[in-house]
Structure formats: C-alpha cells, structure tokens
Amino acid sequence: MGKVTDLYNRRVQAGQLRADPAQTAVLPHLDRVLDQLGQAPAPRRSAWRALLGVGNPEPAPGVQGLYLWGGVGRGKSMLMELMAEAADDIPCRRVHFHEFMQEIQAGLNAARQRGEQDTVRPVAEAVAASVRLLCFDEMQITDIADAMIVGRLFQVLFERGVTVVTTSNRVPEDLYKHGLNRQLFLPFIDLIRARMQVVCLDSETDYRQNRDGGQVWFTPADARAKSALDAEWQALTGDAEAQPLVLTVQGRQVTLPAHAGRVARSGFWDLCGRPLGAADYLAVARAVDVLLIDGVPRLSASNYNEARRFVTLIDALYEARVRLIASAADEPEQLYNEGEGSFEFERTASRLREMQDADWGRRP
After folding, report:
1. CA-CA distance, 99 to 116, in Å (whole number)?
2. Coiled coil: present as a keyword of the record (predicted)?
3. Distance between CA atoms of 126 and 107, rounded to whole angstroms?
4. Taking the chain (364 residues) in consecutive chunks of 10 residues, what is each chunk's mean pLDDT?
C-alpha cells in the first residue's frame, strides 16, 4: 500500500500534473484513510458464526471515511483515481455513484423477487463481502428511490466495516435539496457527518475551464480541425495514457474510444450512429467533465435518426454542464437548416452556441 501524496508528487515531477495548493492540502486526509485501513483488522466472522456456517461478519468499527466536496473541475476525480491506485492490496472499488446506485436498485429488485423482507441488508452485505474501501465519484441524490434507501444502505456498509470516500459538488446538507419527502433523507446527512470527514477542495482553478477562453468549435471538420482537437486533447490530458471508457447502462455497453481522467473523446458516429438513448447519454454526461467529438456532419432527413440522437446528447451535456469541444461541417446554426427536425434543431444550435462561451460550466 502506498501513499496518495507520493503518487501525486511523482505525477507533478513527471509533468503530468501541475501542483495545486488546494489539492496538496487534501492529500494528508486521503493518506490518513489508507493508513488507518492498513492498520485496522479486516471484518471477520465470530467463532460461533463460523461453526453455524453463518456468513455475515461481526460488525466492525469502520475507519472514518472522507467526503470531498467542491466546485466542478477542481481535481476531485483525479485525486480519487490516485487513491484507488494507492490502495494497492486493500480490496477497493472506484465507481461512479450513479452507476453504483443502479446496481443497488437492480439488487433490490432481485431480492424482492426472492421474497426477501429486508431487501437492503443482503444487497449491502454482498457489497461489503467484496470490498473494504468504496471510492465514489460524484455523490448526488436526485432520485427518490435512491433517497429512500441510501441511509439504510450505508448504515449496513458502515456496520460491516466498509470505508467510504466520495467526491461531490455539494456540501452534504445540500444533497437531495428540495427533494420529495426530504425529511426522510435527513438522517443520511447525519450519518455522513458521523462516519465521514467532510473536507472542501477549495481551489480557485477550474481545470476544465483553464483554457483562456480558447476556441471549442472547429469548422470545417477537416485535417486542420483534427489537429486542433489533437492539441486540445494533449493540453487537457498531458501524457496520461488514453483508454476506452466502457459504461454499462441498463444491461448494454456504451463505449467512448478514448478517455483519460474525466476527459473523453469520440467520433460523431461512435456516439450517434448507434441506437443509443437518453439514459446512455446521461451516463456519458455523468462520466466526463470534457467531451471532444470529431466530425459532426451536416444533418438532414437523410440522417434523421442520428440527428435526433445528437440533439439528445447535447441536451444531456448541456444539463450536466459538460464542456464540449468539437469539429463540425459548419457552424451550429447551419448544421441542420432544412427538412424534418430543422425547426426543433434551432434550440440545439442555441445551446451549442452558449456552450462555446468561455465561462461555460462555471455558472451554477
């Protein structure tokens, strides 16, 4: 098991990261969690449980976790990646919070079909049996189904000795704000405060926006535009090795050909030439802070289905305030100016124009 601080410093020395005082201030908190996990005994079954063949371990005093919150683009996800890497031999899983909750809801449905009366406990204990450290990206609660079970879920995880580290754009008290039956959710906030150290990553730098208001829409989609996107990719990811990003959505896979950290790149046809829908594009928008798209074509009745998917994709990126950098056949207003769907596309063109603003993503 290593230290997050050591990994961070090596990345800085290699030129892969730029030292940030706010990020540096958070590193000891991450190291503290790993140090305590390394010293704490793993949850175990008591002798009588082992004799009876009962699988549940004894409730274990968990290591205090960490709730890291702050504005978008401050490096929270990058720090989470380093922590998961430093965990080494500690059973650890890093996962987007929304993806995790989808898995939990699927597990609850299966438990109901088996006739389980307490559906949350067996699902939570199955998670606890496989990990000691859960690293969540972007904890946010918007779904009432999640809000009603998350407190019980985490209570069992903590009982079973699971340590949770999560990032969020919101202070705990703002989770599920104005949600239906929010009073039933409030004990979860108390649980976070009791079992997790709440730390603000208070950086003045938004690394998604630190581009000096540079160009983000390149026309036409020719070799020069490709070179421009290559340069943007290099500026955003440095020497990080690009890997495909595979998202599982409702049992199917959505693949972005290249990603590094919270930056991803895809061709238009990879995203819009396949039969994907709103849930798929919402998953993409949750998984990235910056998306580069190559080769947006002119849109018309001849590629109507692809055009509709592009509209849905832009809606998802817009609502999630994802920075879009793209090469396209023409300016947004000229991409789709005749045929069925052209009138509706005016709204998308307006959004694409707004998303080119230098301050895009900074506004709440």
Report:
1. 23
2. no
3. 10
4. 88 85 93 90 51 44 83 80 90 87 91 92 94 89 86 94 90 86 92 94 62 78 93 83 86 88 92 91 89 94 90 89 93 85 82 82 47
Cα angle, residue 352 at apex, residues 350 and 356 outer, rounded to 5° = 115
Which residues, other chains included, contact 354 with Cβ-Cβ below 8 Å and sequence gap of 6+?
A: 318, 360
Residue 246: DSSP 8-state: E
Q: Are 70 and 201 in contact (CB under 8 A)?
A: yes
Widest Cα–Cα separation across the chain: 75
- What pLDDT is attached to residue 56? 46
Note the pLDDT of residue 154: 96
Domains present along the chain, CATH in parentheses: 4-200 (3.40.50.300), 217-354 (3.40.50)
Do 185 and 146 form a contact (C-beta atoms < 8 A)?
no
pLDDT attached to residue 51: 40
Helices (H), the chain: 4-13, 21-39, 47-52, 76-87, 97-113, 120-128, 144-159, 186-195, 223-237, 268-272, 278-287, 304-320, 342-354
* Predicted local confidence at residue 121, as pLDDT: 94
